Amino acid sequence: MNHLDQETELYALGMLDDCERARIDEHLATCMPCTVKIGEAESAVAALIDSSQQRPRQRRTAWWPVAAAAAFAVAASGLLGQNIAMHGALGADGAMLATLVDSHFNHAQFQTPGGTSIAAKAIYDRHGKWYEILTDGSPAWHVVFVRPDGTRDPAAVEFVRRGAASIVYLTSTEPVRSIELEDPVGRVVGSVRPVLIRE
Amino acid sequence: MNEDRDLEAAFAAHADGALEEAYRRHAPALQAAARHVLGTAGDARDCVHDALIRVWSKEGAYRPERGALRAFLMVCVRNEAISRKRSDVRHVATEERAALATPIFGIDAAERVAIRSALSTLPREQRDVIELAYWGDFTQAEIASRLGIPLGTIKSRAALGLRKLARTLNAQDFA
């Protein structure tokens, strides 16, 4: 086997199948220059993995899953507007939950560019301060805020699994024209246009 | 003495305790790499365990000349995870895989922006290949089929793209 060229990057990126990888492992056992070369590609991929994992995560308060679940339950039950009725049932997270409920949220289903509804829903403060996106399963979607001037602002890629659903909670200090869900290669799989009240 | 260098030499020589020490030192990063592909902590733990045993049982799999042991193990674990996922989802249509089978954990908006920024320095055609490989976990043949371009072109785009990405990440002190 000749010295490795592009195969080093393909190997490190996980683009080879098991047989191709075994063939390269066999070559590396006897070839020092290629061993050094593949080590360089592995360092790059390790850096890519690290850059996905190691930076400090944004702080989130512990109450939001409870509040979001409650908010979703209210929205799904068609009780929007009857939030005052919840006050009597608030527990230890009552103040935060009351804040959320009293913020007069709204909700909307994501639709594909073709107009078909998909299993994803956005619940949001009607002033556009926070957005809760819920979906089934564990999708690899990225959430993008589209600003009024058309600027696309990557907002999040992490959905937190809660039972059968996955949730991501976002806040925004800037106006949002629409929220889009992208797949890993940047295709829009769904969008919603929140109806916001301007303060 | 450099602790990493000592461990790398010990691991390469199959010294007693080297495997356990490598696991102790690098398990969190390895499990994160596996979980990035597989999605659950349980599957990730199994994958890391099997990958380490596989590496350890193969004489000469790692030599210090290859570079950092940590990077070597991360790629081994990631490749093991990708193999597992491919065998699990082979029956799923290619078009569905990117959407359904690539959960991303441990990454927030700021991180995403940083990676996108590094990726954005790549020409579009190289970026597409790197993203499909890294986030989609597709093989070179699958990417060629998906993009409708020759396999040789996929290889060269992946190689050029990763080399450029490595330079960019190095400049940001990631590598």
What does this structure look like?
- The complex is a heterodimer of chains A (199) and B (175).
- With 199 residues, chain A is of the alpha+beta class.
- Chain A has 5 helices and 9 strands.
- The radius of gyration of chain A is 23 Å and the shape is elongated.
- The termini of chain A are far apart.
- Mean pLDDT of chain B is 78; it is low at 90-108.
- Chain B folds into 2 domains: 1-99, Rna Polymerase Sigma Factor, Chain: A (Orthogonal Bundle); 107-175, Orthogonal Bundle (Arc Repressor Mutant, subunit A).
- Chain B is an all-alpha fold.
- Classes of the chains: A alpha+beta (199), B mainly alpha (175).
Topology:
The complex is a heterodimer of chains A (199) and B (175).
Chain A: H1 7-13, H2 18-28, H3 32-53, H4 64-76, H5 94-102, E1 105-111, E2 117-125, E3 130-136, E4 142-146, E5 152-156, E6 160-162, E7 165-171, E8 178-182, E9 188-192
Helix pairs in contact in A: 1-3, 4-5
Chain B: H1 3-12, H2 18-38, H3 41-57, H4 69-89, H5 94-100, H6 109-120, H7 124-134, H8 140-147, H9 151-171
- Determine the oligomeric state from the structure: heterodimer
Task: Briefly note the CATH topology name of the largest domain in chain B.
Answer: Rna Polymerase Sigma Factor, Chain: A
Mean pLDDT of chain A: 72
Classified by CATH, the class of the largest domain in chain B is Mainly Alpha
- Please, how many helices of chain A? 5
Approximately how much helix is present in the residues of chain B? over 70%
Largest sheet features of chain B: none
Q: Strand tally of chain A, please? A: 9
User: What fraction of the residues of chain B are assigned to beta strands by DSSP?
Assistant: under 5%
Question: What Rg of chain A do the Cα atoms give?
Answer: 23 Å
CA-based gyration radius of chain B = 17 Å
Major sheet characteristics of chain A: 5 strands, antiparallel
* End-to-end Cα distance of chain A: 69 Å
Provide the CATH top-level class of the largest domain in chain A: Mainly Beta
- Do you know the CATH architecture of the largest domain in chain B? Orthogonal Bundle
Count of alpha and pi helical runs of chain B = 9
Order of helices and strands of chain B: HHHHHHHHH
Output the structural class of chain B: mainly alpha
Low-confidence stretches of chain A: 54-103
